[in-house]
Amino acid sequence: IFRLFFGYVVFEGICNYPSKFINTVTKNNINIWGVESKDLKIKGNIKANEYRYIRKIAKATGLRVKITKKKGLPFFIRKNKKHIGLVVGTIVFLIILYIAQMYVWRIEISQTGSIDGDKVKKVMQDYGVGVGTLKDSINTELLEENITKEINDISWMSVNMNSSVIQVQINQRTPPPQIENNEGVSNLVAKSDGQIVKTEVYSGDCKVEQGEIVQKGQLLVSGIIEQEEKDTRFKRSSGKIFASTVRFLKEEIPLAVEEKKYLDDHISVRKGLKLFDLVIPYKFAGAFSKNCEIMSNEEEKNIIGTSIPIIFWEETFFPYETVERKLSLEEAQERLKEKVATYESENMSDIEIVEKEEKYIIEDEVYRVEIMYSCIENIAEEKVVNISK
Predict the structure, then answer these.
(1) Which residues does 348 contact at the CB level (< 8 Å), separation at least 6?
(2) Mean per-residue pLDDT for 174-196?
(3) How far is CA 100 from CA 128, 235, 281, in A?
(4) How far apart are CA 241 and CA 235, in angstroms?
């Protein structure tokens, strides 16, 4: 940014000993960069106000040097004297950009596992670090320590400043394998009525047989094992007891519903830009109704591949009015099926549905479905047994 602000030139030349020219420039503390030397040719960059110094050195070392390009603000101003507004705007923009580079523009988080990046940013914010924070005020080592202290799942992390971007790398701690607790005494009891179809007992004394009808709460597998002429043993019961069960479901929806009718001819847009916490609108949406949905979009901009701390935002307002209408039977049935499918997905994913009987009823402007499921499911539920010594 400094070089663009004060201007610099690209030079090239030809001589028999390019290294002699480079060494002489270095000894005189003249800063040149991007130097390329091939055969007898040499090319590089230098500040515009220092170019006269290398001309003297070039003459002394036998280098024929010339300017091939002029870059930066001074040359831009000279070229665009007639467009003073554009020039002033560019100067203001560069000044803002120069000041902005002293602050954090963006936070990039790279993590492994399930650690939430937004949670990391919130912790950083709690400790005074975020977009718009003065870079010189950030202690990266202390920040690493604080984040690790607040988020227990982190095994290793690093916080680095790269220009105006904070780069955070996080590795999640691998939890130790959970060891099943086999201590204690427990039974398996029925969590619903049913008829036993299959038993898989891993530990304990099975008290039911295939084909037996059981009731909710009935003992299925006992952790107290009594044996003739032997001591009673106490174990933690484990296993699966599959039974044929019956389940009932009732879902309903009103036939008269309220819906949104969007007013397409009244859509309006508001635009603006954000510089850190400063919001500058440049296009206003005008008046709109209270019944309105808002769709927001934000876009970061790049200049020559470099991200800048300016975000262009846009809000589109979709006004609507609420209208009442009556569902057709086909629509009502489709909505009921969606509710039933959601229930089955959330509550019956590990249950085998053998048969399903549906009955649809219309009553008092309400469409209802009553369903009876014939299922096969694991009805075993563990209950701890307290043993008095």
Answers:
(1) 247, 373, 375
(2) 78
(3) 18, 69, 19
(4) 18
Residue 118 tokens, joined: 């937004």
Provide CB contacts within 8 A for 110, sequence distance 6+: 167, 168, 169, 170
Q: Any residues with CB less than 8 A from the CB of 104 and at least 6 apart, and which?
A: 129, 130, 131, 132, 133, 135, 138, 164, 165, 166
Phi, psi of 279 (to 5 degrees): -110, 125
Residues 84-104: pLDDT tens digits? Answer: 666 666 667 677 667 777 888
Render pLDDT for 248-265 as a digit per residue (tens, 0 to 9): 999 999 999 988 888 877
219: Cα within 13 Å, side-chain hemisphere: 13
Rounded Cα gap, residues 18 and 116, in angstroms: 55
| Contacts with 81 (C-beta within 8 Å, 6 or more apart), sequence order | 87
Q: Which of 110, 96, 104, 168 is nearest to 130 (CA)?
A: 104
Phi, psi of 192, rounded to the nearest 5 degrees: -160, 165
